[in-house]
Design goal:
heterodimer; A: 140 residues; alpha+beta; 4 strands; 34% helix; disordered C terminus; B: 440 residues; Aspartate Aminotransferase, domain 2; five-stranded antiparallel sheet; 38% helix
Amino acid sequence: MDFYREQILDHWQNPQNFGKLAKADLVVEQINPLCGDEVTFYFKFQRVKGSKSQSKISDVSFIGRGCAISIASASILSEVIKGKRVKELERITGEKVLDLIGGPVAPARLKCAFLPFEVIKKLTLPALTSRMTGRQGIDN
Amino acid sequence: MDIAKIRKDFPILKRKINGKRLVYLDNAATSQKPIQVINAISNYYKNYNSNVHRGIHSLAMEATQSYDGTRAKIAKFIGVKDPKEIIFVRNTDEAINLVARSLGNRVIRKGDEILVTIMEHHANFVPWQQLAKEKGAKLKIAPINKEGEIDIVEFKKLLSKKTKFVAFTHVSNVLGTVNDVKRLSTIVHRQSSDAKVLVDGAQAVPHLPFDISKIGCDFYAFSAHKMLGPSGIGVLWGKRELLEVMEPYQLGGDMISKVEIKKSTWAEIPYKFEAGTPNIEGVIGFSAAIDYLNKIGMTNVRKHEIELAKYAFGKLSKIPNLRILGPKDPNKRCGVIAFVLNVGLNGTLRAIPPHDVASIMDSLGIEIRSGYNCVQPLMDSLSIGPIARASFYIYNTEEEIDKFADGLKKVREIFQFNSKVKSQNSKTQLKSQKFNNFKF
C-alpha cells in the first residue's frame, strides 16, 4: 500500500502529455489483457542535427485507461522521454522505471508499472527505428 | 449452519495476509477447500493410487470404484437420474467447448443462428462466436434490462426457426443475477423445436439448491473448484440421446471399444468423451466436496448467502458514490457484489481503478477480484471498464463484510487525500516532482 504515494496519485489525477497527438509519426498501443489496462502512445520524431541516422522524440503524448500505477507511469515516462534521442531510450531499465515512479510496487503490480515501459522498449527495436520517419501504427 | 465450526475445517482461513487475518472474498473465482477434501486427495495417493478402468488388481479396482462411484453422487446432487450422463471434463470451459465441437460442429450450417446473452462469461461466449464464424452462422446476443436481468421480450424476438443453439448462464459471475433458466429453456423449446439449450452453471451449482432435470435444458456445465473441490475437474451433463449421437471430443485411450488398423469404434457414454488417464484425484476430491456440501445442505448454503448479501447491501448503501452492479433484491441474486467506487476530485466523480482498490484491500488482508472478470462484452455494453468484485461463500461472516466496507472507506481516503491538498493549486499543475530534465 506504500506505493500509493503522492507521486502516483498526483500523476493519476493530472496525467501529463495526456491526449492524442495530431499527425503523429508513430502510434503504439499496449494492452494488459489480465486487467484491461491499455495505453496508446503517440510519437513525433525529428532528425538529430548533424546526425544522419539518429532521431529524437520531438513530441509525445498518450491516452489510456488503467490503474493509478500504469497511468502515473505513462505520465512520468512521457515527460522523461520527451526530447530524448531514441538511442538513449535503450538505457531505460525496469529498475529506473520504478525509481521514476518513486520506488517498488507489489510484484503483482509490476505489469501495471511496466505497461508504458513496454511501449518505449518497442521504440528501440531495430525494425522500428528504421521506419521512424514514416507515419504508421503497430499493435502488440 | 454453524459458521464457526465450518471455518475450522478450512486451514487456509487461519492464514495472515500482510499481517492481517485473511478475509477471502474471491469465491466466484474459486472457493477454498475444507480439510476433508484435502485429506481425501492425500488419502488416495497414500493408500490406493492406481490408474482407473485398466487393471484388475485391488488398487485399480478401488480407484475405479471411487472414480466412477462419484458419478452417481454427482448425479444425485444435481438431480439427474442417469450417472452415465455425467461426463468428467477439466472445467466449465471444456464442457462448453466439448458441446460446441462435438455437436455444434455437426449441426450448425451456413445461415443458422446461435443465441447467447450479453452477460455470458467468455467461456460461454467465445466457443459460440468462433463456431458461428467458422460455419458462416449468425451469433445473436440477447440484451439485459436495467436491473441486470435477461430481457425476456428481446430474448424471444431473437429466436427463430434458424436457431440451432441457445446458451446462457444460470448465475452471472458479475451481476450476480439468478436467471430463470427453466422459463428460458421452455421459451426456446417452444419457439425453436430444433434448438438445443446449454446452461453454464459454474456460478450456480456451488450456491443454489435445484435439480437440473427440472430446468428442461439439454446440456449443463459446471466446475468443482468453485464448490470446495479441487481445480482441473468439471462436469458436462447432457441428455443421453444427444450424448450418444455426438462424436468424441478427443481420441485415444479409454474412449474406444475396438481399434483395428483401419477403423475404431467408440466406447459407450460417458467413456466416449474421456480419452486418456483422467483427473482421478480431482474426482475423488470432488466427491469429498459434495459430501461436505450435502452435510450442510444446499438450502442452508443459499439461506446463508442471501443473509450475507442483505447485510452487505445494508452496509454498503452507507458508502456514498459506490455503484453496485446487478439486481438489488438479494433473493434474485447470488452473493457476488461487483462494484465501482467513485471519488470526487475537483468537483467531478472519478472511478477509482479497480486494481488499485484490490491492491489496497490486499494490504488489509482482504482478497477481492479486479479486472474484466472474463465478461468483456458485458462491460463494454454497460460502458464501464474493469470492475472490482467481492463474492461470498459458506465460511464468510458479517464481521468480514464489516472489514470489507471499512476497507472501501480506507481506499477512498487514500485516493481523496491528495486531492484535498491539491485543490489549492491549479488543476494541471503537479505537486510532485517534474521529470522534464531527467537524465538517464
